[in-house]
Hints:
Blueprint: H1 6-40, H2 46-54, E1 63-68, E2 73-79, E3 85-92, E4 114-119, E5 123-124, E6 132-134, H3 140-144, E7 153-155, E8 164-165, H4 168-183, E9 188-194, H5 200-205, H6 212-228, E10 234-237, E11 240-243, H7 249-271, E12 276-280, H8 288-295, E13 314-319, H9 333-340, H10 345-351, H11 378-384, H12 399-404
Parallel strand pairs: 1-9, 7-8
Antiparallel strand pairs: 1-2, 2-3, 4-9, 5-6, 6-7, 10-11, 12-13
Helix pairs in contact: 6-7
Amino acid sequence: MLSPNGPGRLLRSLLRTFVPAMIGLLIVALSDATARADKANAPIPASTLALMAARGTDAAAPIVVRAYKKESEIEVWKRNAAGRYVPIKTYPICRWSGQLGPKTKTGDRQTPEGFYTVAKSQMNPNSRYYLSFDVGYPNAYDRAHGSTGSAVMVHGVCSSMGCFAMTDAVAGELFSIAREAFSGGQRAFQFQSFPFRMTAANMARHRTDPNIAFWRQLKEGSDRFEATGEEPVVSVSGGRYVFAPSPDPAKEAAFVALHKDETDRIATLVEEGAAAVRTTYSDGGQHAFWAARIRQGFPVGDISRPEALAYAGQEVVLIPGRRRPPPPPSVPEAVWAAWIGRDSPSLAVRTADFVPPYEVGTDRFAARVARYAQTWTSLTRAAIEAEMPPPEFTLSQPSIEKVAQR
């Protein structure tokens, strides 16, 4: 027979067992939430704030973020008091995946390339990879080309499946810089992703790559940003990136001049025999800084496909480089006259009626031929004008006799 106090005693026993456990779980959950809030609200490091101040800007100013896959770097640019974007800091990428070239479909492990927009809603303080923000892939260009995929992030740890993996500390600093720009009133920032630094030399080296036409579009946007110091106004028309002209005529003229110089420089490099290469990867790359730190035992979290990093950035030469010798410089008359000597008999002959091309006037018809005799050679003129007897051509033996003797 059960005691009437049995159920109560059992309930009290259960409460004594489970309530502390529930309280413990609640404390852990609150602690975890507090930790997440703390890392998402961590201040920008003082050293980075000092860099901003040195460039005439501050934490609240708008930002532009630029990524370069081949160099494995991300740059932060900020708008200064004069209204121009200036570089603040460069961060090494710990891991990106895929090859040079744009992302085209879900699961291709490609890190995207192009011009993207990051709004405040794309910031993720609860990321599985410490802190992160979504770069905004696919954009209008990607959708126009039927590209698929989502959730391409800049995040912590060192593992990538198409993302820019930065390690926790670097991801936290980038998160704080973006957070303060949003707090300062910026509604969204531009994220520019390039295959490599868009220099004339890199464009010439990769001129045979299947993506070169696409990269020329990115080059135009990159040149515009660097020439004007303004965030490019980007749209898509006919499946191509289109960039609006700067409202400032002087800045637009600066872009036109820079872009022409870069285009001419590319053509010159190709004409001079620059090698054409294609850079291949097993599965993306990593900045040399992180490779060295990892070898020293520095913790960076999980590293995706570490074996693939040994085959990162292999250059396949498609067109070998060649060195075209420069044309020989023209030699002034005074120099070659000294070479052959003042007493040389050929000097008087060569210089009597000779006018070097570089001393001739610009008018080709300034000195017209006045009479037919001016076109005769010197020997013919001398013979006709009786200054020299005509040459005698005397056969030692008549030709008929020579034939008969055979």
